[in-house]
Amino acid sequence: MIVSDSKPKQVKQTVNRPRLLQRKPKQSRSFLLEKKGITWLFLSPWLITLLLFWIYPLLYSLYMSFTEYRTLSGQMKWIGLANYERLVSDPIFWKALANTLIFVVGTIPFTTIFAIVLAVMLSRNIAWKGFYRSAFFIPSVTALVVLALIFTNLYAQDGYINSILNLLNIPYPKDGWLLNTGTALLSIMAMDVWIATGYYTVLFLAALQTIPNELYEAAEIDGASRRQQFFRVTLPGLRPMLLFVIVLNTIRSFQVFTEVYVMTKGGPLNATTTLVYEVYRNAFDRSDLMGYASAIAYVTFILILGVSLLQMRFLREGK
Fold first, then answer.
1. Tell me, what's the pLDDT at 11?
2. Residue 6 above 50 pLDDT?
3. How far apart are the C-alpha atoms of 315 and 245, rounded to whole Å?
């Protein structure tokens, strides 16, 4: 009896196992499909925004760069590479390119160096450390238009800067810093360094927190000075953030526009005209040059992409 009772149980188990094994793949496949559907559902708002407001305008502006587009009538005529040929022979474009490169090369080193120095100082135990961190970061979160208007008054003919220099008997531009072709662009660059330094200081502060204290302790045991610790421990630890900051700052500097628009309108005598401001001026101040503005925009895009890739390759090879 014991033997006869045990055999049917074994048969039942062997019969039921294949059924259980057959159901699991069906359930798992349906679960994966449902999971993918939910994933795409949550991603759909971002994808729709990307397609409508980024991809489509990007491709459409590329097409416009090969056309003569009349804004008022909406007429578009295919002209091939005529806009790019005009761009090569346009002296204002080359002036804007030169000003943009001067702005990029003249601001990024100072902004990066000041941000690293401030970050190292604020990472130490000093009095009022929280206050200084907030004070340096405030310009980065203040509306750029407001800051541009403040500095316009500071740089004016009767502004505070000229008043102080007059008291100290130091030479200064009598007609104001923004109305002088030799000082207008430099004035905007100085303001930009002051505004951007605080933001990058916060980024470097965050990067400093990731450097293990054991490295500094080991350096002290080996007799390394503060200077040696900075160059042997701090800077190598900041290299990933340094790469990010330089690339981000390069992209931002190539796109300088608000300061120029508010403070100088590209003057005097195109001394502060930049590539992005030239795009704006051709697209909106001159109603029949939307295609030419698109060509300048794409040249600017290629320059930004090329410079950023070179920077990333150079910094990675220097590891």
1. 47
2. no
3. 12
